[in-house]
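Researcher: Quick one. two chains, 594 residues in total.
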Amino acid sequence: MPIQIIAPAPFVTADDEGDDEGGVRLDFDNDGDIAMDGDAPRRAAGRQAGGIVTPGEVVTEDPQWMRGHGTYLSQPLSGGSQSIISSLAGTISKTNKLLSIRALKFRYVPEIGDLVVGRILEVQTKRWRVDIAAPHSATLLLSSINLPGGILRKRTSTDELQIRTFFSEGDLLVAEVQTLSNDGLASLHTRSLKYGKLRNGVFMTIDAGMVRRMKSHVLTMNTSNGGGEVDIYLGVNGYIYIAKHTTPLTESGGPEGKSVSITRLEEEASEAIYSNVNEDISPETRAEIARIACVIGALARNGVKVDEEMVHLGYEAALEEFLQGMEWGGDGEAGKRVVDAALAKRREG
Amino acid sequence: MEGLRNDGRRWNELRRIHCQLSTSSTNADGSSYIEQGFTKVLCNVTGPAEPSSRQKVKQDAATVSCEVYFAAFSGTDRIKRGRNDKKVQELQTAIQKTFSSVILTHLFSRSEITISIHILSQDGGTLAACINATTLALIDAGIPLKDYVCACTSAQSTSIFDNEGTTPDPWLDVNYLEESDIPSLTVATVGDSEKIVALSMENKVRIEMLEGMIAVGISGCGKVRGIMDEEVRRHGKARLEAAME
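Model:
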């Protein structure tokens, strides 16, 4: 007979633990081991729980399935058959005959074409190491950034010596994943005017899985209360940067929309592109940037995926409730209220 | 009362276990909080991430490292335990060794998984609570594990001697008073199997009592697994429902 363990008091109801006579004494079988009851009830219970599997749970014993991510094979039994066991807590996904488990929360895995926000960790001779919240830091080669002076400029050894003038440790940047090596190391590039150094704003992180993949991950929002336009860089890796909207061309290249030759455009843009100096940001803009940051944090914290629609709805909701005391990162009651209001708005359509 | 322990439990009764996942909103990948009786532990897991130093790079697997911090106010006496404290080092090594064997480290070559544990209150079974908290935080971080690692303590009361020569029942899940009074051990198993991944005992005990103690500990681990699994499922369900909205 197995050893009976009494569950902690608050969870015990009068009838579910059976005898109240102080449990069952140890029972040794012939080889001195103590017999245990099998794990059958747990596994049966797991099946009914509606979609969620937890580590150690047998997903299937059927040999027709192939094991994918988040699973492993059990030790072969005497019959040679192996069962597929989950190694994560998450949902089962089936692709043809491939069984994999999608974890509820996971670290970012880079994919080619992802827009990511990163932070420079280290400056090396011809490259930077960039933290992109992945298991390994990414590299950004000197040859894959826009050098000041236009697209046709040749990379020289002077640039190598002046590498810190472009990016130095701690700088934030927005980039695209250009290539992946065999072992999943990402290499980034910023060879577009959309990418480059980030300034004039605030950096925040959410869980990587909470950013929905979209057509465009750079949003420009018109804010209320005189905040003006605000850019939101929603990195697929869960790093987010919210900044005052800037048009790099207005400084010297004239107002937006004015036709500038493409090479001229590059030149003009690159002057300011590696600047470390923030522009003047009005208190109104700062307040709206902070509000957007709180909204995004609250969405992620309450398990709602962040995308363009939800940021807009969340922002509207936050304005309407005119919340006081919404906490940084979106924790707490106020954050929850905003998210609920945003979801209600979406249901209304 | 006859047959009851100093806190009113029976020999095979667990203390109240309260656990939570995703407790921290900082940049930790996974976090958890567990209370076993009055033992309270907070755990944060980061990783798999770039190793913090070159020595920690393993070409074919992830390195598991562990940091344990005792809050000065956690025990009965106010004691500050530094990094090099023997007890701290012992706990760190035990947890690091235990989880290195259970995490599927081969999936994350040249990276590091950092477990950081804060002990907020000690009332017996500190190592067990640390192991349970770590399991939950790792699950929350989405790091693949072979199974839950569950730990439990058991002790052999030597004060009661039986005339017929039978050993008295071992006590399950000791509190601080019992732990300092009678020989106890901590056992950790992989899931509710009988596979032991950690076994620690700091006292002397008669050899014939050991088996009973381990057996009771293992059964306790099975029960603890059930309680933790329930919380993981509850948490997961809540998260999924929010995502469905």
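Chain B touches chain A through 64 residues (CB under 8 Å).
Researcher: Thanks, that's what I needed.
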